[in-house]
Design brief:
The complex is a heterodimer of chains A (about 375) and B (about 100). Chain A has about 375 residues and is an alpha/beta fold. In chain A, about 40% of the residues lie in helices and about 20% in strands. The longest helix of chain A is centred in the last third of the chain and has 27 residues. In chain B, about 45% of the residues lie in helices and about 25% in strands. A 3-stranded antiparallel beta sheet of chain B has the order 1-3-2. Classes of the chains: A alpha/beta (about 375), B alpha+beta (about 100). Chains A and B meet through helix 1 and helix 2 of A and helix 1, helix 3 and helix 4 of B.
Chain lengths: ~375, ~100
Amino acid sequence: MPIAIGLEGSANKLGVGVILHAPPSTSSPASPPSPHDSAHSDDESAFRQSKSNPPPVQILANLRHTFVSPPGTGFLPKDTAAHHRRWVVRLVKQAMKQARVQVEDIDCVCYTKGPGMGAPLGSVAIAARMLSQLWDKPLIGVNHCVGHIEMGRTITGAENPVVLYVSGGNTQVIAYSARRYRIFGEALDIAVGNCLDRFARVLNISNDPAPGYNIEQLAKNGKVLLELPYAVKGMDVSFSGILARVEELAHRLEKEGSSWTDSASGAPISKEHLCFTLQETVFAMLVEITERAMAHVGANQVLIVGGVGCNERLQQMMGMMASERNGSVYATDERFCIDNGIMIAHAGLLAWEMGFRTKLEDSTFTQRSRTDEVLINWRD
Amino acid sequence: MAASEFPCSLVVDVPLLDHRLASTAMRALQVDAELSPLVRRTFSLVGREDSAGDEEENSTILRTEYSATTNRMLRVAVNGFMESLGVVLQVMEELDVDVLESKS
């Protein structure tokens, strides 16, 4: 029963996970609660075994520590890398303890090879290389996007969905074909999460636990839809113009305060209404390009992965579109949609089972790595 | 490469417990190329001065030689090296096989 440890650090979340792949005949796996820093986690979640491909898995440990920068700021590579260096050994130790595995039980050490931020990826890669040598275990370099997709598939049991991968660093619509996760559409400039996070800075919205989470809570109390550009370009989307415009609105709010009122309802414009406006606009764009991809491939399942995938409004809007097409939406909770180590362990173990190895001298990291660069030879 | 092009240099010797640890550290650190073309770096394993006997087993010191075009580039590069070295040492200290075994 292969076991892998996975280290993830491409952005401000440092994740360490230990996963076990059980042969299909064993009894249903249980998932222990994962102690991590998010305040709003829901630790009760049963996941199903899919009838087709993804193997039954046991999450032996899934720990994460997030580097949160002060309100009004974002996380910079240098500080983020320093955070990961401070926490990586501690998290690995805790994960091994929680998983109750010894070094000899582990089959491979998996780490995020890319894409992501350079310095943070580097800190984690160094730790992985050290573990691989000291423990005498093979190294597996994993593509971050593929990690998200494989974890989403396994946790939800979705068989062959169109995947919407949305996070602070990535926005892609993906469909599987002939051993590759092919990118059907993507953000042309900045990721949707990046747009949300940078908007949060202008209004000094807290980054704890994540700016997007706080925008979501504020948006629940907003209902005025102001006008923002809507930038869908065929299969792709663009957010930088929307960000520029919504930042203008935020500055206007700061200047005019409650004297700025909505012309239709007379309600004073507030942070809540701005958050609502931004979410409704960008999420509608994402639903549109996802639907376009579904029409192209004739799929009716959607799997949402990535940090922005935690957003319940996005899940709801996607659900409305999917049910109009007699389809369904699959999403995971924040243990898995926010960057984590278990997805790296999982995707890495899938590759290891096919004989894939990353030689030590090739265990570099890279800021840019396309999702379709990876040969998905564990699927047919 | 002409030494005069990279006049600012520094040698950092890190003494480790044994050859295995020194070699592990070197192999982990040498994977990443230096980011700047204004900096040159070489790694080697050297023996302690008072050591005798088998040469390879006595190479317990990780020697890193930096040379750069300016002192500023040298400082930036060496600082980065120190940060990575910190991770290397901490993993050795807390996660090596013997350490984990004794804790379990």
